[in-house]
Amino acid sequence: MLELNNLSARLGDQDFHWQCQLAEGELMAVVGASGLGKSTLLNVLMGLTPPTQGVIRWQGRSVLDLAVHDRPFGILFQSHNLFDHLSLRLNLALGLSRTGRLNEQQQHRLEAAARRFELHSMLDRTPDQLSGGQQQRAALARVFLQRKSVLLLDEPFSSLDPALRQEGLDWVSDMQSELGCTVLLVTHHLEEMLGVTDRILLGLTAQQWLNLSVPEFRQKQAEGRFESLLGSSGSR
Amino acid sequence: MTLTRTLAWLGTGALLLTVVLALAGMALHPGQGYGWASYFDAWLWQIVRFSVLQAGLSAGFSVVLALPFAWVLSQQPFRGQWLLAGFLNLAFVLPVLAVVLGIVVLFGRQGWWPLAGTIYGLPGILLAHVALNWPFAVRLLWERLNQVPPHHRRLANILGLTAFQRLHRIEWPILKAAMGPVFVLIALLCFSSFTVVLTLGGGPANTNLEVAVYQALKYDFDSRGAALYATLHGVMALGLMALLGRHRVGSMEMVAQPTRSVLQRATGVQCGAIIVLLLSLLAPYLALTQRALRSRWQWPEMLNEAVITSLGIAGFSALVAVLLALSRCVSADSARRRSVWLDFGVLVLPAMVLTTGLFLLCLRLGWARQATWPLIIWINALMAMPLILQPIKARIAAARNQYQRLTRVLGLSRWVALRVIYWPVLWPVLVWALALSAVLSLGDMGVAALIGQLDFVTLPLLIFRAMGSYQMGLAAQLMVALLVVCATLLGLAEWARGRGHA
Amino acid sequence: MTMKSILATASLMTLSFAAHAEPLTIYTYESFVSEWGPGPQIEAGFEAECGCEVEFIGLEDGVALLNRLRLEGASSQADVLLGIDDALIAEASELNLTLPHGLDTSDLSLPYAWQDADFVPYDYGHFAFVYDQTRVDAVPSSLQELVYESDLSVIYQDPRVSTPGQGLMLWMKSVFGDDADQAWETLQQRVVTVTPGWSEAYALFQEGESDLVLSYTTSPAYHMTWEDTDQYQAAEFSEGHYAQIEVAAALASSDQPERAREFLAYLISKPAQDVMAGTNWMWPVLEGAETPEAYDQMARPDTLYFNSETVAENRRDWIREWRTAASQ
Question: What's the rounded Cα separation, in Å, for the pair A73 and A147?
């Protein structure tokens, strides 16, 4: 269980507040208008932005005093997920070893992951020789190698076209089912998510978030409760 | 964290210590000076007036001459424009003495186009300053014009604006805004000019404050006078810098490369402009080479030693300059913002004063002989540092912005981050900075001339002495040798930057 | 750390340069030690006599020499100072850096009666404007005429660094007195350039940049001797010519003062004096010393001079006067 208890953060003069729970192995879509703090939430979870108060618990234990890389979380940003000047192989290797140097067993794991994500033929290229979709897939492969229990995805596919976006989602749900990991996914394309997501964290304001199941969401949507909130972005 | 912070403090500390020690050294100067009132005479007024006049005229001519060329070059991106930009930089970086010598060979009594009057005095100074700064002005204005958004140009095409209308509506406002800062920057550089004014001044009438500092120390043995001229220089230079404000026009970084696909063959007018530019840029060097070839090749006894000394000094001071620059940008702390003025230290506090102060201190301590090398290396590093700082800072900031998050997420240690992230991103710019500082130190004459101990001889000093005894042929030959070394180093720098882009 | 070790390496390198033996170090002006100057012969002669090593160090020009000594004070590496002139002696004495020479200089032939306990005169000359008689015919016959009536262009040396330049300043002062500033202003209109040293000025003149150059009455002897031409002549001025006596002294900072004194004695002995006229192109101070044949044709003009206390007292004011007037 991932618990966010009375969690607050402050960015500039904007205050954010979250309160929610997510069962292990579930996928939660984080939606809401821009500026409500969707990305900030992931950064706070990750430890990149310090919270002003509150607790984050994973499996009953607080993660707040863990260093960024020791937290059970792996994250994908919208961009800059790879080191542009390093080969794909080294980029992936950094997910396995903090020095980038691998032993034989780790080598095998890297090769296997590369095959799994269909990147095997590109291992010696640098990111700028890959397409946008391939780059994000490679970043996903690295998170896969990190073996983290919780995936934090900050619109990693939003700059891709719908078909590639769908493909990206498929990779994510494959990975989720294989590793049984828990996923928080920030998105502007909720409609595309409704088939795969278990929960929806819907921001009404920066301090007020609703934690809904898909049926609950559909029902409220049918009542026309979110037209003003999701408006264009929700159905785009 | 501690490592970078230590490095940053070391850098700041070294710079501060330099200033303090130099001032202490000046205070220990055995020259007793004279009553303050005696300094404020007609001559002081004359040198202040001349400092401002020559700087203003030099900058004015440079900018006005640069306008049409920058405009023509910016009309359309063309193939090989990086090469031209590189050439424009070259003139700014190469030894000042080369341009001075080139000007003498071109316009002197026995030159290609002898000047009606004498080359010594204002005409010579202006010619040399324009030759040095005009290409620089062209590059800055050209770069500025390249910032016209492409869709503005497209729109202008669709609307069928003539070149003149486009100039009037789109480009002139940009040029007008850019002209001021470029003028002030060049005026600042000419205001602080030393080698040109010293070698081509030709008498007490044509002295600027920087040369007056040198003369007060070296000729009049008068530290108080030197302090007065240095203070005046500092105050006026600071004033000019304040005028410059936040405009960041002084970067030595190359014009951003437009994507390959838009590059076309240069138009006829552009070709004309390029040819005129290249010819006038290269003329002094061509004249030098021709003069060098005309005389029998000589191999002065001191040459080997001078070359070794020069290369040694250039190598060490380049290394120190880069380390110093790194120490000025490794830490993103706000603590170092308070010491940001140190980044420009040598532009405000004349190098002459720093050098003399430190040298005097060493004399007092009896280290004069041993201190020659370290002193020259350190001061040359200080002079090169402001010019290489910005590009290094920019690369580090960019790498930090792009990768800091990722580094933390992956939990890379400082050492690994340095090895796999910062080093690959930085080494091209570091090689470039090393080569550039080495070239700058190679061309230095002022520092070596001021403290040059006894049998100490560098290549520029040897050239200066040859010029001093009017052995123009020998001077030209030595200069050509120096230029070849500089060109090789700059070629290396460009190659490194090329690797950086790939 | 790295930087420190670099600096340490660099200073070690300089140390190792400095490490060899302990020669007699002599500070002098650059043209004295040039290939054609008296330096090489005097060095060889004295080295043979004393069985020691002599190191000449050439520093720009006379005034710079004095400044260098002031700067280094008692910590100077030099044993002997050679090449300042009579005008600067009072200033140099004030520094208390020299040793008495203990030589008898009363028999030396000098342009005016002069003796000093510390400084040994080794040659002398009279300043003069040199011209090329194939190019110039209206040669002025007085300084007055040169300044106010002539239209010939002039190159001279900076009085702040160069002893000839200072000589011209004193010459102007002794001829024009309080009106010297006006004379400078008038002359300045025909000045091509003011050079830091004698050799620059003379070379420029020979390249044809000016009609007249400030030099010495004996300069034409050089061209007669080596180039076999009387093309170059020194203009004789009716007011008289300002004289310069060049001197040397042993320095108190020396760790071999006896050897320094021996050198001074050698400097006014016949072997060294025979060299002076033909290399330094100044008159030797020793009666009967050899001079090139051409010296017989050289003029022996009337002498103008200030005693060196007067110069010491007024030098800065006169320099300021020149500086201001020459900048108009």
Answer: 9
